[in-house]
């Protein structure tokens, strides 16, 4: 009995029909990739992302009206992104965004395969992080090594742009990942998001008022949208 390969939903955002067709033919050769939509601009891409649960987006940077990176910055929970471009100079600008890889047009098939390999490695690492959520510790990848963090030792987690700081009893760990990614892997009975930049351990809250909580002597603000979750 063969196990069904895992399917990753992807979309192609590309305004050149030929380039879009080439990508589509590459995607169709991989049975783990499932193309749920193709479009030529950011407006339609936003629409596709709201309808489908997308794991991977192929994004051309030279889109009409809204450019690729500007579009990406506005996305709340972006999928993994493989950028396609005819220009070299964009790699640096995208460094702060979570880009899995850059493909230079015209895209050779073997280079496409390398990019997909990177994407699968990243998403599988993320899935592994989520599976660990029920235990009393988590492992987080930092470069090539895995760092073990005991959940009970965490006071709070703060977000600083594309990094998070996990403040624990012994030290502060810094990782390059969005706070939403670690939030998804934590048990909400134990941890709660109190602000777009903060997640706290419920048992470590020392003082709570309408607009702030104190954890380990540090006062942290409560964001308006997160107030209801603190009542639980």
TrEMBL record:
The modification 4-aspartylphosphate is found at residue 60. GO terms for molecular function: DNA binding; phosphorelay response regulator activity. Residues 9-120 form the Response regulatory domain. Residues 138-232 form the HTH LytTR-type domain. It holds the Pfam family LytTR. Signal peptide: none annotated. InterPro entries: CheY-like_superfamily (IPR011006), LytR-like (IPR046947), LytTR_DNA-bd_dom (IPR007492), Sig_transdc_resp-reg_receiver (IPR001789). Keywords: DNA-binding, Phosphoprotein. It comes from the Bacteria. This is DNA-binding response regulator.
